[in-house]
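Quick check before the chapter quiz. The format below is the same one you will see on the exam, so make sure you can read both the input and the output lines.
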Amino acid sequence: MADNVLDTLKERGFIAQVTDEDALRKKLGEEQVTFYIGFDGSADSLHVGNLVTIMAMMHLQRAGHRPIGLVGSGTTMVGDPSGKTEMRQMLSEEAIQANSRAIHAQLNYYLNFDEDKAIPANNADWLLGLKYIQFLREIGRHFSVNRMLAAEAYKQRWEKGLSFIEFNYQLLQAYDYLELYRRYGCTLQMGGDDQWGNLLAGVDLIRRIEGVTVQALTYPLLTTANGAKMGKTAAGAVWLDGEKLSPYDYYQYWMNCDDRDVEKLLKTFTFLPLDEIKRLSALEGAELREAKRVLAYEATKITHGEAEAENAEKGAKAAFSGGGDADAMPTTNLPLSRLEDDLGILEIFTEVGLTKSNGEARRMLQQGGIYVNDTRIEQVDRVLTSADITDGGILLRAGKKKYHRLVFEE
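Here is the expected output.
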């Protein structure tokens, strides 16, 4: 291993805190390290916020280390209070299992469990069968309530109320680390910086029970230049599942990033060399759009594959410059008869997902943000007719950057 991967992570902005940086750097430089990150089954897809951790895992994997992708079907039964102002919704066991299967499939795409390049694990395998009194005697006795309450995750919730079931979460996560150390020799746990207290609890538990020193590393919680949490938009989460967010819309998410975030996002969400990132980030004005195009293409390629990245790029060119392939743009096929039934503007914008509701479409229209074939629409009772059909169908646009194409068939 030539360059130490810890320095790579540091240069790309992945590191917030490390238990012992010098010891971890030495270990990563001398031997294969087995490490893990846990992903709870609270939704049926991961999102861009999770992708920060996945990218770090991929950097370590590329450097010859062994990742464990832990799906938390067991811990999701409890719910992690970290970063939450109120208790998470309790999901049924069936929903958690379905979500966990979907997340396992996504992690497999990035980490390649099927090719034995990573280890799949599910903490339901050891958590759901625990005997409560035995667990308290063997594990609970090592935890100080005073120290737990000092953890940031619990402090933030103390005034609004922290349920007893959530209070157990730190014990369960620490036990996960102990179990993975015993099963696979795992000596590094990673996670977001809001997880620091939970990670330290695992390090301490292994030291107390096994007499071994293991490590923990956290990433900064990624925010945009305007202070918003990374991976959130007005329309909701930026999902990694192409069924929940199309590759084209995923591509557009990166294209629409703030100019001030381009360098940080290139470092975090692509594998481009740092010299190339520095060159792209130095571009200014209209040329900076080229840096965003590279970011969007590379990020989409990592999550959806090269073919989808190329299609998204073609669709973007068709929408924004009149060039490229219009077929790559998000498209809805409708029967021609729909135009005979007074197909209203507000209705169709909502139907294809450009707006969440007719009310939102009406407000956007009144603010001058609704377009048909690049012509601004000003009448709320405007309907689409066959006269609106061009060679490429009918092009709808909401605001400056959201496009959708309608194709009508006999």
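If your answer matched, good. The longest helix spans residues 93-111.
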